[in-house]
Design a protein that fits this description.
The complex is a heterodimer of chains A (about 650) and B (about 290).
Chain A lengths: L1 H8 L10 H21 L2 H26 L7 H23 L3 H23 L5 H20 L7 E2 L2 E2 L13 E3 L5 E3 L2 H24 L1 H11 L1 H6 L4 H27 L9 H14 L4 H18 L7 H15 L4 H12 L5 H5 L11 H4 L5 H7 L3 E10 L2 E11 L2 E6 L6 H9 L6 E6 L2 E2 L5 H6 L2 E4 L11 H11 L4 H15 L14 H14 L4 E5 L7 H15 L3 E5 L3 H7 L3 E5 L2 E6 L1 H5 L2 H8 L20 H4 L13 H4 L1
Parallel strand pairs in A: 7-12, 7-13, 10-11, 11-12
Antiparallel strand pairs in A: 1-2, 3-4, 5-6, 5-8, 8-9, 13-14
Helix pairs in contact in A: 2-7, 3-7, 3-10, 3-11, 3-12, 4-5, 4-6, 4-10, 5-10, 7-8, 8-10, 11-12, 11-13, 20-21, 20-22, 23-24
Chain B lengths: L2 H32 L6 H17 L4 H22 L8 H23 L12 E4 L2 E4 L1 H22 L1 H11 L1 H6 L4 H23 L9 H16 L3 H22 L2 H18 L12
Helix pairs in contact in B: 1-5, 1-8, 1-9, 1-10, 2-3, 2-4, 2-8, 2-9, 3-8, 5-6, 6-8, 9-10, 9-11, 10-11
Classes of the chains: A alpha/beta (about 650), B mainly alpha (about 290).
Chain lengths: ~650, ~290
Amino acid sequence: MRDLLARVAGSGPKPAQGNVRRDLGGAALAFAAAAVLGNWVEEFTAFEWSLWAVQAILALSLTLVWGYGGIFSLGQAAIYGVGGYTYGFWAINLTDNTGESLTAVLVAVLVGAVFAALLGYFMFYGNVTDVYVAIITLATSLVLFAFVNSTSGRAYRIGDAPFGGYNGMPRIPRITWRLPGGESHELTRTQFFLFCVAAGLLIAVAIRVLSRRPFGRIAVALQHNELRTGLLGYDVRWHKLAVFTIGGAIAAFAGALFAAWGRFMSPPVFSLTPAALVVIWVLVGGRSSVSGAFVGVLVVKGFSSWLGGASGDNEPIVLGVILVLIVLLLPGGIVANLSRLRTWTQSRISLSATRLGTDAEAVDYQLEPSLASPTPEVAQQRARLIATAAVTKRFGGLAAVDAVTLEFPRGVSCLIGPNGAGKSTLLDLLSGRQRPTAGAVMLDGQDLTKREPFLRARGGVGTKLQVASVYESLTVRENLWLACYAMPRDIEEADRRAAGLLEWLDLRDEAEQAAGTLSHGKKQWLEIGMVVSTDPSVVLLDEPTAGMTREETERTANLVRELGEKASVIVVEHDMDFVRQLDAPITVLHMGSMFSQGTFEELSGDDRVIDIYLGAHHSNGSPSDSRGPAPGRPPNAGSAEADGAITAGGSADADA
Amino acid sequence: MAPDRLFNLGFDLATTISILALVSSGLAVIFGMRGVINLAHGEFIMLGAFATLTGVRSGVNIWMAMAVAAAVVGLFGIVVERLIIRHLYGRLADTMLATWGLSLIMVQVVENRYGSVTEGISVPVGNFTVGEFSMSKYNFVLIAAAAAGVVATYTIMRRTRYGLLARAATQSSTMAEGLGVNTSGVNMWTFGLGSALAGAAGALLAPVVGVIPTMGQTFVARAFMTVIVGGPSFVAGTVSASGLLGFIENVGTNWFTPVIGQAMLLMAAIVILRFLPQGLTGTRFRR
């Protein structure tokens, strides 16, 4: 059952498995088959087939961008169009003089990449997300459509090449090559077909290789949980931009081949139907399946000519119906669903173990060496002082945090306060998830206020969020690997440390299970493990023990104390037992301001603190009552025997 | 600048802004309230225009035909919601794909039925002259209708029982259900309302634009940019984004060509989103 759950929860895109040699072998085999077929059939048929290969390359660009990168781009067809027109301009102007058009292909790829990079910069650096990306890319295509349509005048030309407006750009040269000093050769139809197939297969292999590299794993990670990826110290925006730019280059390459194939470009390439077509190919083939790109093009083409071609021009209707039905019935795509059926019948092979290093080579994970502080002197240097200076955060009229000035020295500090006191907001300001309205956040005297969360993470600020934020559909091991890779950026080191962490966190049995299937407490524990493994010098923990058993809470308390010996640890917690166990200086927040500071004993004797927790009328209760027993622990543990909680009528010695 | 020229420019600008507000308000309701991106929005507009055209052709009074068209598209929206959208709430990308499929189907079906030739309805009111400039009185209708549409939607959302329930379902669907709200029914009416607004926009635009099956494409990009740039607050967002983007488009259109105007609108929107990812009303207003 657990296995089944893990599989369902883990059905999202995954990094591709296998190795390069196998991929290349498969590609070589496919190419050989294409070569035999291409030479066997009529030249003209082979030429027709080239279009299929070209469109598969276009589909691959979306597989990379959407399937692996999680960027829902509807603009791949538009970049394809840009590539095609660019090839047209260069080839028309230069091929007569230079005798080759490969430069034009190269220029088209560059222009496509630059176009994607520019668009991507505005989208990703503006933190524009998923559907907004879809809309912006789609709107961009439509504007390009309108623009190119309006360029029919003679004024719109580059050199000898006219835009041609709605009439299109004719007489684009075919792919031609020439060795320096040699003669110029135009590719024959069969050669062109094989050229396209080879290019498509190479790109497919390259995408698979890339997806197994850390770059690809991070791309998959940010698709699953952008927030956590940023908090581990990865630059989410840069990664998205890079993926989108590479995707743009591939799409533009396909466009150049398309222009050379049809020798003609016209504005409808920017319209909605081609844009939808690309998405449909990829959906049919499976979003994150490289071979699915080829299959998808073939299936959709066969289907729409079979159904639409017979009764006139009904292709859009067929496409539309396919789109609606896929979304309603088969959200994973055909190939992905087929392969899921296959794995269903087999026992689940522990893919991650082979991919992410085996347990055999695990290091014996201990907190001490992992924090890389062999001597107290080094530890001294690593601990850093995070502080706020009159930091304020307003939401509309409400000041969630109001001019708070605090310093958190090395060691553990606790932040407590009733609900709505501003604790979590204050942590968000420290981690960079929110920008203050006024005031500053400092780390060792450096102003962090405007620094992005991922840069703070790289600077040693580790954050555990209130609601556990892990990669729910990746396995526990993959979660830890991503955390371990973030800082040293060393694959083998990350493999070993992830395996060691699994032992240390006692999650070995769950290693290949999707993190989303863990119990609430274990998920928290996993997230804490991920934060610790980034080697932070400032640790922000927002309610780390929520949902933990008493035993887990105690382990967490021990861990936090251990961490506190080397780092500044700031804990927000409601569980007073836990706070007492930490035996750390406490800051009480109330209505966004600092209310009081002191040790546990001092505060538990302070009537004012008790009042804000319970309201003035109930100053005889215990504050942990206000929340009831913590989930996951025996009901009587929280309230009835609240010996550790702040009790009213504080003792005289606490005031001393 | 001569006063008549100034009036002409201002009137022209107000018309552009009103058209933007008209074509985007239906989308803003559906997206803002239910987080559904209706990519067939442009085709809903197109449907409104064709419904008006059909009505006028069969001898119905044009204003009557427009009202019926809005209702027809609203009903159509309800059917679509029950058949498709209902299953896809919370799956943003999927709703987008499904409605895209729908838009492809709608364009082709209408094209098969009516052909792809531009159809026209004559403008029901005449022109008026200020100084040297002759302008269409119909633009007053567009401006008034845009204002009325925004005010009416606001009133429905803020002053009626349905509006309260719809906003409750927006904020927390599970909580609303827990309190006994029939969120499924509320969602259906919200989608219907947004569709009716799109239909009304199509009906009102039918006399001033070419009524062709692909006319949705010309509006959908602008409508989406307006909604995104507007941000979460319906009235403030629609008004401010239509105003700003309409101004930019108007300047581009008057100085260069309509296409450049559209391109400038898009570029402005992208630049705005780079610096205000939540839209114009994202930081100051909370939903």
